[in-house]
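Human: I would love a firmer grasp of how sequence relates to backbone shape in proteins. Could you go through the record with me and say what the backbone is doing? Here is the record:
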Amino acid sequence: MPFTRFFRLPLELRQHVYRSYFSALDLTYPRLGPSPLLLSSRQLHREASPLYWENARLKFQGTKQLVDFLTSINHETLSKLRHIAVRAFPFPVYRDPEAYGYTTYPFSDVLPLFPGLQLSTLWVGDPFHGKWSAEDGWGHNAAYSSVDDFIKCQGFKELVYVVENDRFLKRVRFEEISMSNSTDSTSGIDEPVIRSPQPSTWDAMMKQRDGPTASVEMCRLLDGGNRRVPLKTEFETIQEATENADEGQIEIRIKRGTNSDHVQKGELVKEWGHDLRDLFKEFTWKEIKEKQLYVEAEDDPTAHL
């Protein structure tokens, strides 16, 4: 038998091999089926399968795909998941079949739908910035507010939020264009929204919640992500003079405090999240899609804010 010599190793060593193997896996939905390794031997399957979900990194194109997966697994499997990467598109839904308009919920309102989620790492990509995004004040504010919401969230020990540029950190202006599309018909908020110094303000919020071991760190990713330049308060950087201050993605790393309870309890970040939770109590996710209560938001996420 090909695994005879392997099974002579101590179980602890075999489990170390399984963890190392699975932690190197980057699985993209919907191809999240069992690893071929688990099909090679009954004993190996019995020993290694409990470690599969705990170590593999699961990638999702967007919020809808993540919900597709999380609603398809049982609570036991959900509680074993440890590493997820997702682009956090907004989540627009009609609150009932008779509703005239839909409500757009942020990604942070989706997490409470899945009590028991206890990730070690949640990697979140911002959908409102970058080459294919229609960047505006609404998207800037959505990205900035997402960090505020993530600091209040449960379900992860560490969250890494990546934004394509730093425009969301600066003061922004909201504008609305009338139906005439005239350049003279711009209206909205005249006064720009001024940002608090970051990451110091977010870091203070996190420490107030979880204690001194909690933190929020922010850096600029340069050289294809191989170099991290820390961002200090008031958005000052310690970049070299030859580097363009506007280049590079922004990475915000939110770390829960030591011994903090990070398990998702279903507690809401915003009060209006009750409506989304009630919708999922009344209908299954499959029924929500069949009744066309969910609105696709991935082509132009800013338009649904």
